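[job 0412] stage=complex_fold ligand=pyridoxal-5'-phosphate status=START
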Amino acid sequence: MKVPFLDLSLQHRALRTEALAALTATYDATRFCLGQDVEDFERNFAATLGYPRVLGMNSGTSPLHVACMIAGFKPGDEVITTPFTFISSAWGINYTGATPVFADIEEDTFNLDPVKLSAAVTPRTKGIIIVHLFGQPARMDEVMAMAKQHGLFVIEDCAQAVGAKYKDTPVGIIGDAGTFSFYPTKNLGGCGEGGAFVSRREEIQTQARHIRVHGSDRRYYHDIIGGNFRMDGFQGALLNVKLPHLAGWTARRQAIAARYLAGIKLADVRLPGQPAYGRSVFHQFTLRHPRRDALREHLAKNEVGTDLIYPVSLHLQKCYASLGAGHGSFPIAEQAAKPA
Ligand SMILES: *Cc1c(COP(=O)(O)O)cnc(C)c1O
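[job 0412] stage=complex_fold status=DONE, emitting structure tokens
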């Protein structure tokens, strides 16, 4: 049996009639930028996943950018994040002129290690971008305790963790701001670019709402510096069709992951850790093996798709060479990028 790494066409075929009807309605009503479909999606997303309020945005990178603007990061400030993530987790820091500072990860969950995070704090540290990687919630109690101690702004990158909870709280509203991506490959994917911003703090959500439309509450009056971070109507319409299926899709991911966890008996394989504080929504099922490349080849020969996520840690990317963190700076992250 052919098992591709990702095949969106299955899901899209099943929803085709409903999706095209929704997109057609949006087309006919010319609701292209924000509008009713996006408002409906925001309300549905909040109600379904347990958020007080939600703002639709035009990618998963945008709400990270907006969150960094709201945090007030500026040149000279340091913001700590993980070197083992998709690059976008760190971009917002650069957009504000602040400096990304990396701290190493935990071997088991691939998420930031609170002990290493703590050791990276300096008098210039202003914030933390914590990533719930591969769908696995990070250790938020430890992160929040440290943030409180040092007065740091905490941004949760939930791009891979839609629907995940830390203890009983949905990820994204434990810190000061939370961000989502609806890039097509994510657990909840749009038909193009999309993202969302959440906060448990109403004043932060209000600021984000204004920043999303050019720093404006009233058209042509700009009280704060903003930008164009609007979700488009087609994404809202499609995501409204998909959202009711998310819980079922997540349960299916978790059931398949449970079968993998119980059934993969390969010698020397390292399966993803399952800490008791929060259940993964398994954006990826990430395993490690000393003969990784041979294993991938073997699986490919048997028509089972795999991917290598992530082959190069952020601190070793060319764009961050000037930060001066060379090979050996974050051994656990570097090890995770290599064969087990
Ligand atoms: C996908 C992703 C993003 C960015 O989302 P886009 O919608 O592609 O801009 C940010 N962080 C992580 C961890 C991601 O996986």
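The mean pLDDT is 97.
[job 0412] exit 0
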